Amino acid sequence: MCIDPDLILSEFRNECAKDLANVRWNKFVSENARILFDLKTPTDILRYIAGNAIEPLVLLEIEPYRESGPNQGELVYSYSFKTASRIGYLAFYKAKTGTWIIKSLHEPKLPLNRDILNITMKNIEHKKKNSHQHLEDK
């Protein structure tokens, strides 16, 4: 069952904004966040995801979690984003326990996938254009 990715993203970001106890990640996410995005604390990571610094997030894919274990089959939502200085990649899912899991937060794997970069940049421009049009219509 694929739930609306915009709704899932909104729920995930809302949880990041309010509840440190209900969002988890591994040491690799922490290390990448510190090295690549200068996010030193768990609170920094959650504020970064919840805030506008990585806006807009562009959906890349939705796929089942492949590793064996209790969350196998849960849907993983993967996004690209652009900050002031970097292209990034974020993947997360909601565990069967209800806890949100940040699976990945890093730059796209090298060599840089030009298709992902092009999709990200086109979608960012499209979203900017639509938001400006929406403001003009008011």
Mind sketching the topology for me?
Elements: H1 5-18, E1 23-25, H2 27-37, H3 42-50, E2 58-64, E3 75-82, E4 87-94, E5 100-106, H4 114-137
Parallel strand pairs: 1-5
Antiparallel strand pairs: 2-3, 3-4, 4-5
Could you characterize the architecture of this molecule?
The chain is an alpha+beta fold and 138 residues long. Helix content is 42%, strand content 24%. It is built from four helices and five strands; from the N terminus they run H-E-H-H-E-E-E-E-H. A five-stranded mixed β-sheet has the order 1-5-4-3-2, with helices on both faces. Strand 3 and strand 4 form a beta hairpin. Helix 1 (5-18) packs antiparallel against helix 3. The relative contact order is 0.16.
Short description:
The chain has helices at 5-18, 27-37, 42-50, 114-137, and strands spanning 23-25, 58-64, 75-82, 87-94, 100-106. By secondary structure, the protein is an alpha+beta fold.
Structure characteristics:
alpha+beta, 42% helix, 24% strand
Largest β-sheet summary? 5 strands, mixed
* Strands, count: 5
- Structural class designation: alpha+beta
From the alpha-carbon coordinates, what is the Rg to the nearest angstrom? Answer: 15 Å
Weakly predicted, low-confidence segments: none
Mean pLDDT: 82
Percent helix: 40-55%
Instruction: Please tally the helical runs, counting DSSP H or I stretches of 4 or more residues.
Output: 4
**How are the strands of the largest sheet arranged?**
1-5-4-3-2
Strand content: 15-25%
Give the termini separation. 36 Å
SSE pattern, N- to C-terminal: HEHHEEEEH
Note the overall shape.
Answer: globular
